[in-house]
Design goal:
With 389 residues, this protein is an alpha/beta fold. Helices cover 46% and strands 9% of the residues. Bound molecules: 5-thio-alpha-D-glucopyranose and manganese (II) ion (2 copies).
Length: 389
């Protein structure tokens, strides 16, 4: 492996404990790999060049553990982190695994379930803060329905909002330095999940009491499940100042949530994504939320982890070459892709200007028949990605 593609801490690559730790269980078959301890995962990932790990409360502390047991586990884990130079930039809560959450957590019909979900989340935020996390991810996997007769969907949003408002007040009250990142998914494990896409999340955030504390954590696979252009979604999140975190993986269109290795399926889309992340000044973690194929043993899991980071760095290098490619850049200048100060040719609105614009004549036929040359441009991108440029 060439050194140029060797991950470094500065690359900010992270993996969830649940990702490389995934033992390969699926709805049709049992685990194919042994469960790895968090300590082993942290050490291995550090050796491979990752920056940190992220976790759900129960990836580290078993459900129902006593306070003393929790404290012992956390103390030992902190030592492992320190010894291996790894950080925990993001934490989250498992609000989907236990049967108590079968009707949702924040949106469940039973108020006791909703209260339990808030209690579990507050404790999980405490844990995250103790480990140094600055981002708290909220993925509402069970916040949805099979039978829409069970509640007015508006009630679902209201409960979701109440929960997030409550948690934001908790964070403020505790003076924690942590922000929320909401993760959308259209379906699975529920038949339909509320707030199905990053776009839905962005709109919902503006209805919260503390929108400034809340952003998004988009996942490649989840937007691709909805047939959406992930690159566009990320651009919108960045434009809104809301890209707090990102889940990198891959997905074939129209299927269940595959959580495939980053870049293993949608190379071109992932190229534009990496280019955007790198050029936008996004400074958060590059988090891989994916897992190795079920065919793999532990060695295959580490190949998966190495491959995820390597592909990101390969695409980053391609983005650099795109920016330095004279022919590509000349075409971009020619077609008006470059952002200029007065890029709409409109300038600031004035009464006079609007009157002139209304009276102006356009050679519409010439504009309509002009070829734009995007075929040539796109082929140059393909040549670049396939290594002949
Ligand atoms: C679960 C889900 C992911 C979320 C994780 C955070 S858990 O694996 O499929 O997309 O990001 O809760
Ligand atoms: Mn995810
Ligand atoms: Mn997923």
């Amino acid at each position: 492996m060439s050194d140029a593609y060797q991950p470094r801490k500065e690359d900010k690559f992270t993996f969830g404990l649940w990702t490389v730790g995934n033992p390969g269980r699926d709805p049709f078959g049992d685990a194919v790999r042994a469960v790895m301890s968090p300590a082993h995962i942290v050490k291995k990932l550090s050796e491979l060049g990752a920056w940190g790990v992220n976790l759900h409360d129960n990836d580290l502390v078993p459900f129902g553990a006593s306070a003393a047991e929790r404290d012992r586990i956390v103390k030992e884990f902190k030592k492992v982190l320190a010894d291996s130079g790894m950080v925990v930039p993001m934490a989250t809560t498992n609000l989907f695994g236990h049967p108590v959450f079968k009707d949702g957590a924040f949106t469940a019909n039973d108020p006791k379930v909703r209260a339990f979900a808030i209690q579990k989340t507050m404790r999980s935020i405490d844990l995250g803060v103790e480990l140094g996390a600055k981002i708290y991810v909220c993925w509402g996997g069970r916040e949805g329905t099979e039978a829409d007769a069970c509640r007015d969907a508006r009630e679902g949003f209201k409960r979701y909002r109440e929960a997030l408002n409550y948690l934001a007040e908790y964070v403020l009250d505790q003076k924690y330095d942590i922000r929320f990142a909401l993760e959308a998914k259209p379906n699975e494990p529920r038949s339909d999940i509320y707030l199905a896409s990053t776009g839905h999340m962005l709109a919902f955030i503006e209805t919260l009491d503390h929108p400034e504390m809340v952003g998004v954590n988009p996942e490649v696979a989840h937007e691709h499940m909805s047939g959406l252009n992930f690159y566009h979604g990320i651009a919108q999140a960045i434009d809104a100042g809301k890209l707090f975190h990102i889940d990198l993986n891959d997905q074939k269109p129209g299927r269940y949530d595959q959580d495939l290795r980053f870049g293993s399926e949608s190379l071109k889309g992932m190229f534009f994504l990496v280019k955007l992340l790198e050029e936008s000044g996004y400074s958060g973690a590059r988090h891989f939320d994916s897992h190795a194929y079920r065919t793999e043993d532990e060695a295959g899991v580490w190949e998966f982890a190495k491959g995820s980071m390597r592909t990101y760095l390969l695409l980053k290098e391609k983005a650099r070459r795109f920016a330095e490619d004279e022919e590509i850049q000349a075409i971009l200048a020619e077609i008006g892709a470059k952002v200029t100060k007065d890029d709409h040719g409109l300038g600031q609105y004035t009464k006079d200007g609007a009157a002139k614009l209304k009276a102006a004549t356009f050679d519409v036929d010439a504009l309509a028949t002009k070829g734009l040359g995007y075929e040539r441009l796109d082929q140059l991108v393909i040549d670049l990605l396939l290594g002949v440029r």
